[in-house]
Design a protein that fits this description.
alpha/beta, binds zinc ion, two-stranded parallel sheet, 10 helices
């Protein structure tokens, strides 16, 4: 056991970016299967009672009309908001949440020993929808303009919070949560997990589960290890703290550029984008500058931003 763990530590230090395109094909195959099951969608997602969406027929056309009008009104509001926030193009509207959630498995090359017993680790969600997911980490910067911008543009995102930078201003994140954002686990103190014992890792992860539950009334189901580094103990601890999935990322957004994990330096359907709660001290810009940049990239490439939780 000890030998195995040491070996894993060695292979996992700092090589998280190196996984080649091979991993993508596994994901692509899964995406095809999922797509075959449930891509009929589009209209009526917000109606309280969904009319039975006939697969590829005109069924439910009457209901679709008002939904289309609703969508048009929403798009008009988005155009106004986009102008206000300095976006060249308004964000594209995400398709309705998939009726069947894709089956998430650990990305090739990201497994630990006995991976199947632990929450899956992935960088892309298998889907053929032209969507990406925005995830924001840590929590140091608490920019009220950012909250306003995201709400007015109706851009969904998921937060991964580390308590040591969040605990001076819980109300900021309460406001975020009230706007529909899910607050997830990024440990208490943002330590490099593989350097810690199982017990220490468990304190970091379970401790943050308890803190988020106490402060925000909800226990997270998603966990992201600091720096994207983990070993078997990390996943074992996360599982024991009630974590169901470990989303990493396939692209990282800054105020003036995007970094990509894949060799093609591009976005793909279902890619998870990472960025941070950071401000001028760390970046040449503000969080709203960062959102402007990431949204320009995403929209220019023809993607919309969807809610990660809708797919998990
Ligand atoms: Zn972090």
């Amino acid at each position: 056991m000890q030998l195995v763990r040491q070996k894993e530590d060695k292979t996992q230090h700092g090589h998280r970016y190196a996984a080649g395109p091979r991993g993508r094909f596994g994901v692509a195959v899964a995406a095809l299967l999922v797509a075959a099951l449930g891509t009929a969608c589009s209209s009526g997602s917000e109606a309280p009672e969904k009319p039975k969406a006939g697969k590829g027929t005109e069924a439910g056309a009457a209901g679709a009309l008002s939904a289309a009008e609703k969508a048009k009104a929403a798009q008009r509001a988005r155009i106004v908001a986009a102008k206000k926030w300095g976006l060249v193009k308004p964000p594209l509207t995400a398709p309705a949440a998939p009726k069947e959630k894709p089956e998430i498995t650990t990305r090739d090359g990201f497994e630990v020993e006995d991976q199947e017993e632990y929450p899956p680790v992935f960088t892309t969600v298998p889907t053929e929808d032209k969507v990406v997911f925005l995830t924001i980490d840590d929590g140091a910067e608490k920019d009220p303009e950012f909250l306003k911008m995201m709400q007015e543009l109706k851009i969904p995102y998921t937060a991964f919070l580390s308590d040591y930078v969040v605990n001076d201003n819980y109300p900021y994140f309460k406001q975020m949560q009230a706007a529909g954002v899910t607050l997830n686990n990024h440990t208490l103190n943002h330590r490099y997990m593989p350097a810690l014992s199982y017990e220490k890792q468990r304190q970091e992860i379970c401790g943050q589960q308890d803190t988020i539950q106490k402060q925000f009334g909800k226990r997270p189901t998603l966990f992201r290890p600091p720096y994207g580094n983990y070993n078997q103990d990390t996943l074992r601890a996360a599982k024991s703290c009630g974590i169901k999935a470990v989303p990493l990322w396939n692209a990282e957004a800054f105020t003036n550029r995007m970094d990509y994990r894949e060799w093609d330096r591009d976005l793909h359907p279902g890619d998870i984008i990472l960025t941070h709660f950071r401000g001028r001290e760390d970046w040449k810009g503000t969080m709203t500058d960062m959102i402007r940049h990431v949204m320009k990239t995403v929209t220019d490439k023809g993607y919309s931003v969807a809610r990660l939780e809708d797919y998990l």
